[in-house]
Amino acid sequence: MSSDPWGKNVLVEFDEGIAWVTLNRPEKRNAMSPDLNSEMLLTLDALETDERCGVIVLTGAGEAFSAGMDLREYFRATDDGPQAKRMQVYRTAATWQWRRLLTYFKPTIAMVNGWCFGGAFTPMAACDIAIAADEATFGVSEVNWGIIPGGNVSKVLSVIMNYRKALYYIMSGETFDGKKAAELGVVTESVPKAQLRERTRAVAQSLLKKNPTAVRQAKIAFKYVDEMSWDESAEYLSAKSDQLRVVDPEKGRAEGMKKFLDDKEYRPGLGEYKRDK
Ligand code: COA
After folding, report:
1. Whose CA is nearest to atom 11 of ligand 1?
2. Rounded to an integer, what distance in angstroms lies between the CA atom of residue 80 and that of residue 191?
3. The pLDDT value given to residue 1
4. Which of 12, 34, 182, 258 falls 20 to 30 Å from 25 in CA-CA distance?
């Protein structure tokens, strides 16, 4: 019997360094239930040290990326239960959807294949890159049925969206498609659905060719400086750069400089640094 934590609400497929992680409740439009959230948390933990995984692509089975939090199992079933149990269920969701993904050890790409509603904005935005199908439908739909974008969705929108646009969509609950999501900066780009997997795979493969330690330090540094003062940020980035020189087993900085300054075989502005890997 497999000891992998995925297999029911979450599927994982390995493909040349990419781990395709699929939210797998297509009959419920991949609404995120407590069981799915627990499975995702364990899956992310396992993939962090799994050598078959260099990049994660998070997507959804069937027509949806995810219809958000499961209204029946996540909300109604826990609403009147013990507070401690509710908090545990909330914490598990928030941990994988935001905390774990935000500073994940490996690059993460959200591939938004279809419906993306409410709580689904959180893991989508926590991924480093998001690529949507033009035909996908996004909605901060909560106001339509008498609630607010909770979890941490309003906070997520304050990070990824322009102030005026975020308020408009929070207050109107209007939906928008993948093209609009790209225009709004909610996703990195959108492509026709027929090309979505191929394009996502190409982006993932290009990340796999980079120095993984440099990619990791760059993304984590970017995410942390957001809430720092200018002085704190400058000090932190300087320390982070020094740290990179120590923790990078490829010694990419020294190699890159040698190739540019001494060997004259590489110009950073004109092409990819050729690694020996
Ligand atoms: N929570 C719980 N169940 C959900 C769900 C959610 N967020 N979203 C969909 N489902 C369930 C439906 O209840 C239905 O279950 P059933 O077959 O037992 O009746 C099943 O998934 C299919 O949903 P359905 O509405 O029939 O599919 P659709 O393709 O016609 O529409 C959506 C898809 C996503 C547009 C629609 O399901 C929807 O609006 N969902 C709610 C989205 C939302 O506001 N999410 C915010 C939550 S924070």
Report:
1. 28
2. 43
3. 66
4. 182
